[in-house]
Amino acid sequence: MILVVFYLIAFLCIFVFFAKWNNSRKTVKLDKEWFPTIPEEEQYFALVEQYGNEEATQQNTKILTSALVKRAMATISRMWDIQKEKPSLNQLVRDGIVGENQLKQLNLAEEETENKLQDIQAEAECYKDGWSKTILQESAQLMAYIRQQQAQAQRSQKNSPASSRPSPKLSPEEELKRRKAEADRVARELIEEEEKTKKSKSKKTK
Predict the structure, then answer these.
(1) Are 82 and 113 within 8 A, CB to CB?
(2) Would you say the pTM of this structure is higher than 0.70?
(3) pLDDT value for 100
(4) How far apart are CA 174 and CA 166, in angstroms?
(5) Is-contact 136 121, C-beta < 8 A?
(6) What pLDDT is attached to residue 34?
(7) What one-character-per-residue DSSP string does the chain give?
(8) How is the chain split into domains, by residue range?
(9) How far apart are CA 52 and CA 46, in angstroms?
(10) Regions of the chain with pLDDT less than 70
């Protein structure tokens, strides 16, 4: 009887070890729906290609800086999502539910996003001296504000009497358009606020 129990325990240990080893060997690619291409990044590059060869004007610079802020906001949002998923994925790897390759892919995505943020800082410095030191902080504050507004809207919707009625869900494309419109509005407010600050400073120096 003791030998039977011993063999069962040994078999289970070997099975668990093999399962973990097999999972670690599997190459798991990141789902494109999980980390899709950042639309704001592509939009910014398209605008740079459109206005890059033209003479620099105040209007062109305003368009490009606004697009860069939106790109920074979207990239920061991507980084937050990665950092949010990382602890739970670490736990899944420790439990042997998923392979270590998936965690490696997530780490690569995090590293790639960090490089994108550094590129944004370099781009910001081309438009304005010293902007590289503040653009990420400004964009993070804007993104946090948008998420806070979205969370408040969801809470108020749940607490309202009309929340008992099922509301139509937005499609992924409609949700993306809504978020982009919100980001556009906040970015415009940021640029307008910066222009007001510049004007007030110039008046004080005169």
Answers:
(1) yes
(2) no
(3) 83
(4) 18
(5) yes
(6) 59
(7) -HHHHHHHHHHHHHHHHHHHHHHHH---PPPTTTS---HHHHHHHHHHHHHTTSPP-HHHHHHHHHHHHHHHHHHHHHHHHHHHHHHHHHHHHHTTSS-HHHHHHHHHHHHHHHHHHHHHHHHHHHHSTTGGGTHHHHHHHHHHHHHHHHHHHHHHHHHSGGGGSPPPPPPHHHHHHHHHHHHHHHHHHHHHHHHHHHHHHHHHH-
(8) 31-152
(9) 10
(10) 1-34, 160-206
- Distances in whole angstroms, Cα of residue 132 to Cα of each of 8, 56, 65, 121, 147: 62, 20, 12, 4, 24
Q: What count of residues does the chain have?
A: 206
The pLDDT tens digits for 160-170 are: 665 455 556 66
Q: 48-75, pLDDT tens digit by residue?
A: 988 877 777 888 889 999 999 999 999 9
Backbone angles phi, psi at 157, to 5 degrees: -70, -40
How many CB atoms are located within 10 Å of the residue 103 CB?
Answer: 18
CA quadruple 52, 124, 43, 61: dihedral positive or negative? negative
CA pseudo-torsion sign 143, 145, 148, 153: negative
- 């869900």: which residue's tokens? 169
Residue with tokens 């639309």: 39
Is the CA virtual torsion 173, 84, 151, 186 positive or negative? negative
> Do 116 and 135 form a contact (C-beta atoms < 8 A)?
no
